[in-house]
Amino acid sequence: MKTDLTDTTSSKINKALVLGRRAIGTPAVGMVLTLVIVTDEENAYDALKAANEASREHPSRTLVVIKRVSRSPRDRANTRLDAEVRLGADAGSGETVVLRLYGEVVDHAQSVVLPLLLPDAPVVVWWPVNAPTDPANDPLGALAQRRVTDTYAAEQPIEELTARADTYTPGDTDLSWTRITPWRSMLAAALDQVTCEVTSADVEGEEFNPSVELLAMWLAERLKVPVRRSRSAGPGLTSVRLETSAGPIVLDRPDGSLATLSIEGQPDRAVALKRRETAELIAEELRRLDPDDTYAASLRFGLERLDEEAAVTAPAPEDPAPDVTAEPAAEHAKKAPAKKAPAKKAPAKKAAAE
C-alpha cells in the first residue's frame, strides 16, 4: 500500500501511517527500531531495497531522507516536504516513509525526522554515500545510538578512513569494517587450530580499498606484529598470509567467492567466503546496537600506523633493514676505515723495496 503526500507535514505523515495500518488490518506492528537512511535520489532505490531485505530480520520503521538541494534562489524559496508512505508488501516487514525535502527545510531535516521516530526504540542512521565528516555531531546523527557509514563509497576512501579515526565516537561503525567479519572469523579459527607464535602478516587486496586497511589494522593491533599490505587486481580482499613459528597460514580468495585455507601440516580446505550484498551487511550491523570496541581499537591503531608509514615512505630506499641489524651495521661502519689504512701504506713500502 502506497500513499503520496505533497507539501505535507510530519503530523500528516503520522496520520497516514495510522490510517494505512488500519486499512491493511495490522493496527499494531512489532517494530524493533527506526532506521534513518540519508541519501540522494540516485542511490535511494538501492539503499531502500537493501533496507527492505534487512527488515525481514529486523522489522523497523525506515525513514528515507532525500535532500533535494536547489541551486537557484527561486527554487530555494520554494520550501516544502513531500512524502511517500509505504506499508504491507511494499515496505518489507515494517513501515517505510520516503521524505523529499526542498528549500530551506533541507537544513532542518532533524525537525522533520524527530516526530516520526518510534517511541522508546533505538535509532540507527545510515549514510550510503556522502557521509558527514563527523557523524556523531551531524544533526541527524545526534538522534541515533548507532551511525553507519561506508568509506568504500567515498571519492578518497583512505583519507576518509583517516578522518573516521579523528572523529570516532562510540556508536560509529562502517560497512568496510563489516565486510571483513568473515575474514576475521576465519583467521581467528585458523589460529585456534595450531599452537604457534605469529611473527608477521601480509594482507593483499585491491588498491585504495578501506577493508584491506582495516583488516591490516586489526591484525597489527591484536597480534602486535608487523603487517605488510600488498596490491592485487581484486576483487576486494584477495589473500592474507600469517607467518608463524609452526609454518605459514594462508587464506587465499582470488575470485571473490571461494577461498582456500592452507595450514602447515594440514590438507588445504575450501571455504565459502563470498562477497556479501549490502542487505546482509546492514542486517549484521542491526544485530548489535552497542559500541564496537574492536572496531574502535583497530581504527585508532591504524591512524598512528598510517602516519608513521607516510613519514617513512619518502626516504624508503635509504631506510635500514629491521632494528635487529641496526647495531651490526654501525659497528661495520666504524671498522671500515681501519681496513683501508693498510692499503694507503702499501705504496710506501713498495718504494722502499725498490
Automatic annotation (TrEMBL):
Domain Glucose-6-phosphate dehydrogenase assembly protein OpcA C-terminal, chain residue ranges per copy: 170-299
PANTHER family: OXPP CYCLE PROTEIN OPCA-RELATED
Biased composition (Basic residues): 335-348
Protein name: Glucose-6-phosphate dehydrogenase assembly protein OpcA
Positions of region (Disordered): 310-354
Protein source organism: Streptomyces omiyaensis
One family name in Pfam for this protein: OpcA_G6PD_assem
Glucose-6-phosphate dehydrogenase assembly protein OpcA N-terminal domain boundaries: 51-165
